[in-house]
Amino acid sequence: MPPPEPSIAGVGVFDGSVGGCTVSYDGLIWYDVPSGPFSPIDIRSSRCSVANLERNANAIIPKWAIPNGSTKAIFVATSLQQAYSVSGMQKLEADASSARVPMTWMIGNSAYFANASLYNQYHAQNGDDVETGELGPPIAQMQSYFPWYVPHVSVDGAGHERSPSTDVAAGFQGFWGITWDSRGIDGTDDEGAPWGEYCADVTSYKRPDPNGDCSFIAYEWTARDLTRAYLSGLDYWFSTDPDDILIRAGFDPASGAQYEREIIDAYAAAGENTPFVVMSQQESADEGNYPSDDQLMTALYQEAVKDGMKLDTFASVNADAKTFGAQPRAVAFPYLTGGNLVPSPELNGGTLYPATIDYHDNNVGMTFLAGHTTPTRVFEYAADPQSFYDVPLAQLSAAQTPTLSGVAVANGSITFAFSAPAAIYYGVAIWADPSVLGITGAAVTPAGSAGVVLTFQLQEGVNDISFPCPGCTGTTFAYST
Questions:
Q1: Measuring CA to CA, which residue among 43, 50, 52, 7 is closest to residue 431?
Q2: Cα–Cα distances in angstroms (integers) from residue 407 to residues 44, 415, 475, in the given order
Q3: Which of 12, 222, 278, 351 is the most buried (most CB within 10 A)?
Q4: How far is CA 322 from CA 4, 40, 42, in A?
Q5: Considering the chain, what percentage of its residues have pLDDT values greater than 90?
Q6: Chain-wide mean pLDDT for the chain?
Q7: Per CATH, the architecture of 74-329 is what?
Q8: What is the per-residue pLDDT across 60-99, written as a single tens digit (0 to 9) for each?
Q9: Ranges of CATH 3.20.20.510 domains, the chain
Q10: Spatial separation of the C-alpha atoms in residues 448 and 455, rounded to whole Å
Q11: Are 419 and 462 in contact (CB under 8 A)?
């Protein structure tokens, strides 16, 4: 059994109140939470009786994580084909084509050429694509079987070093296989690399290109639950791969299918303001070996279509991703319940998780927990001029981390007082609807209606950083639920 949530008054994660309450994590920024259930928030202080605060086993999904309009999110369905299973391939195609989702078949085993007629059929009927990569069949051999094939995204995968320079020389415009937030699973540690897609630095592929060059794009292995993957430390449990959900995370087929829908909904809602790529990967051999996978994959594909995501393959997605891949991105992700409850190292063993905002631009990657003004982790991309297999990106140490000492609101502006041990590019988050606050500008990145990330350069020593905030009336905000 997981350990109980922290019981010290006013400390921990809460997701409900009786009569409303005002709470804070750092004692500088405060949030008014409503009466009744709300999205979980991490706090250390409250201006109400602790009896007013509640923890519910089945946290609600906040309104900001439920689709309510057209989305800019792009959905790419892929299948890694290393272990051979023609029946699994056919089952997966049936799931995808029934939802009118085109597939990208990533051929890593030449035995699959025995099915060349199927690929050609699926290409003609569904618009399916095929790809190869460093460890797959040669491009010339691919084109001998598939005259319509053009290399776009190299299948580099995990468990070995990637070589973007080799990919570029072969004519690829990107690679697939970054395992976002992985910490050694399958011999791969990609912690710190952005999720989804990003304009990769060819000389240091786990980070974005510092100049915003989007000629070579990295795509993640498969989309994750950004909150549970990070806070549990188990990225390979909480993902869009059905075997992760059923075998590791403890869902049954029905609840797993619902969880898949909720993950896609959260991405679709975030995509109403921010374009990005949502990756899906299912291996043909797994689809053949685990019959219940079919139920989850069908739910995943159908939800992407229902939510109005654009459906791309690797033959076309680069053209889309190049238009937005270098832009700053802040995406809020809710806590989705179900399956195994995992004690979080970040939450002193707590099993009720706050939402997260995951932010990255060409300089930095940051993760914020709901209620936190400053990030819980920071990756300065300049600290990694070269990427290495199974080595995470460097995290900012406690000794390098700036200290937030004060927040003030006056004359339509909000000012943050920091002390920095060295010059650093940094950021803060406010967990309130940015459209209400009226904060805008080049260094302002909304996370939908859940919150907003503000970025800035700090100099060594004391800094006062101000942003126009016409909707700010004080340092207490309405918590976005």
A1: 43
A2: 17, 6, 7
A3: 278
A4: 46, 35, 36
A5: 93
A6: 95
A7: Alpha-Beta Barrel (3.20)
A8: 999 999 999 999 999 999 999 999 999 999 999 999 999 9
A9: 74-329
A10: 16
A11: yes
- Residue 41 near residue 371, CB atoms below 8 Å: yes
As a whole number of angstroms, the distance between CA 212 and CA 325 comes to 8
How far apart are alpha carbons 448 and 73 in whole angstroms?
A: 13
How do residues 145-167 score in pLDDT, each as one tens digit?
999 999 999 999 999 999 999 99
Three-state helix/strand/coil letters over the chain: CCCCCCCCCCCEEEEEECCCEEEECCCCCEEEECCEEEEEEEECEECCCHHHEECCCCCCCCHHHCCCCCCCCEEEEEEEECCCCHHHHHHHHHHHHHCCCCEEEEECCHHHHHHHHHHHHHHHHHCCEEECCCCCCCHHHHHHHCCCCCCCCEECCCCCCCCHHHHHHHCCCEEEEECCCCCCHHHCCCCCCCCCEEEEECCEEEEECCCCCCCCEEEECCCECHHHHHHHCCCCCCECCHHHHHHHCCCCHHHHHHHHHHHHHHHHHHCCCCCCEEEEECCHHHHHHCCCHHHHHHHHHHHHHHCCCEEECCCCHHHHHHHHCCCCEEEEECCCCCCCCCCEHHHCCECCCCCEEEEECCCEEEEEECCCCCCCEEEEHHHCCCCCCCCCCCECCHHHCCEEEEEEEECCEEEEEEEECCCEEEEEEECCCHHHHCCCCCCEEEECCCEEEEEEEECCEEEEEEEECCCCCCCEEECCC
| pLDDT at 441 (0 to 100) | 83
* Residue 231, both tokens: 């806070």
Report the 10 Å Cβ neighbour count for 18.
13
Is the distance from CB of 220 to CB of 279 less than 8 angstroms? yes
pTM (predicted TM-score): 0.96
Nearest Cα neighbor of 177 from 102, 82, 112, 266 is 82
280 contact partners, CB below 8 Å, separation of at least 6: 75, 76, 77, 78, 222, 223, 240, 300, 301, 304
- 399, two tokens: 């000794």
The alpha carbon of residue 370 and the mean position of all alpha carbons in its chain are separated, in whole angstroms, by 15
Distance from C-alpha of 319 to C-alpha of 196, rounded to nearest angstrom: 15
* Residue 324, pLDDT score: 97
- The mean per-residue pLDDT over the stretch 397-401 comes to 96
406 contacts 432 by C-beta, under 8 angstroms: no
The two tokens of residue 276 are 């990005």
